[in-house]
Each structure stands twice: as C-alpha cells, then as structure tokens.
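thought: fold this chain, then report.
action: predict
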Amino acid sequence: MLPFVTDEPWVAGSSLWSLDLFLMVNLSVLATLYVVGVARVRGKSLTWPWLRTTSFFVGLGLLAFAYLGPFETLAHTFFWAHMGQHLMVMMLAAPFIVLSNPVALTVLATEGRVRANIIRALRSRVALFLINPIFTWLLFATVLIGSHLTPVMEWVLGDHDVMAFVERPMYLIAALLFYYPLVGNDMCARRPKAAYRVLSLGLMMIPETVLGAVIFLAPVTLYPSYVVSTTAAGWEPIYDQQLAGALMWALTMVIDSFWMMLAAVEWWRSEERKTARLERAEQREAETTPT
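observation:
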C-alpha cells in the first residue's frame, strides 16, 4: 500500500509559498552585515577567501530553503518535511555558517575598543564553557531528543510563536555552538585536539540515530497534530512518521560522516605541517652544528 492515495498534496504544497517576513528581514540583515564586513576587511588591504563567503551564503540559503517557500508549507502538513527542516538547519546550515568564519570577520572588520571587547568576550569563562565540546554535545543531543520525545513537540506545533522564537533559534544556536570548536578554525579560544574533534562528531551519530530509530520503529503515531494534517492530506500518518524517522536515521550518518571526513583531513594536514616544521628545525640544527 502506498503511503498516500493521491499526488494532490504534493502539488498543493509545492505551489504555495510561505513567506515569513520576520525571517526574511533577519536573513537579509545577516547577509548585509557579512558583505559589509568583507568590504571593510578588503578596504584594509587584507584578503578574505571567497570560499568563506560562499560558505556563509550556502548556510543562509539552506536556512531560507528550510523555512521559506514550499518546503515550509509542506512541513505544516507532513512530519517528514518538518524533520527535513531540522536536518538542513542543524546538520548543514550551521556548520557551513561556522566554516565562513563570522567571528574572525567581525574581529577584522572592527577596531579599537570594540575589537578588544570582542576578543575579551571570546576568552571569557562563559564563552569557554559554551564552546566546551562536552557541554555542546549534551546541548545538541538534549535539544534534538527533548523536542521530539516529550510533549514539547505538540506544544510547538500548536503555537507558531513558540516555533518561530523558541524552537527554531534553539536548534540553530545549539548547532552553531556544537560545530564551532569542531570544524574550521574561527578564532576558537580553546579548541580540542584533532582526535577529539573527530570523535565528538562521530559521537553525535548516537542521539541522531537513536531518535530516528525510535520514530521509525514506533508502533503508534507520536504526534496527534500530524495525524490530523496528514490524514486530511490523504496520507497514512504512520507512513509519514516512518519516512521522517528514516530520514533522521539514515541521512544523519551520511552527513555526519562528511563532517568527520573534513575534520580528519584537517587533522592530517596539521600533522603534515607539524612534520614539515620538525624537519626544517632538524635541518637548521644540522647546518649549524659544527662537524
């Protein structure tokens, strides 16, 4: 039996645009600030890699794709689309934004007391606690699992303001904090060793796959709101839920493997640089040692 009895929900969902003015304004402001920052840095005769700028706009584009347009419309009806939003925001958009080095850009684009205050804040005890890999892993896992396996989900689905101003910002903040010390190097004051970065990224598969498995294998529907909406759209609610669980279960392993590979490549390159420095030091010592 197919999970839906008609293709009309797809047509209806893909033809309706959900344009959130609040989100559009915020994304536009962030894009403008980044462009202005790049212009200020280049105005100081400094270079700013185009890959970082590209990474930032890829991250913003993923946020826009997740929360604006037809995909957002589908997420109000289908749980699989709602889960797809989480995947795009927490596991793709956030690390791409981190790789764009927004902290370093802000420091380079500012001067004087403002720059000094930013650097001081980055080295404060609060900042060091917030980027501690143990804390960020627990926060990421708690936000992900707690929002899906507790009554929080039904609360969020029934209150647009909670979804817009609490749930979605929390997902993005938790993901940004998690990836900040692990991928790239955006002036992180206390970065874990390369092996720990790879390990932390790998351990994130545990809550993600557990959540996906629980949702996929659940013998009953978990979210009454989606039972109502998917039934009205002509879908079987349990199939919609299983598709959402499968997305979380399978795709997260693929996405996490990519970020682990990126961290491993960075580790390998750092080891190469370390070896090269040691070889140069040995060569200089050999040249200066009398025979």
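thought: worth noting. The chain has one domain: 8-288.
final: tokens above.
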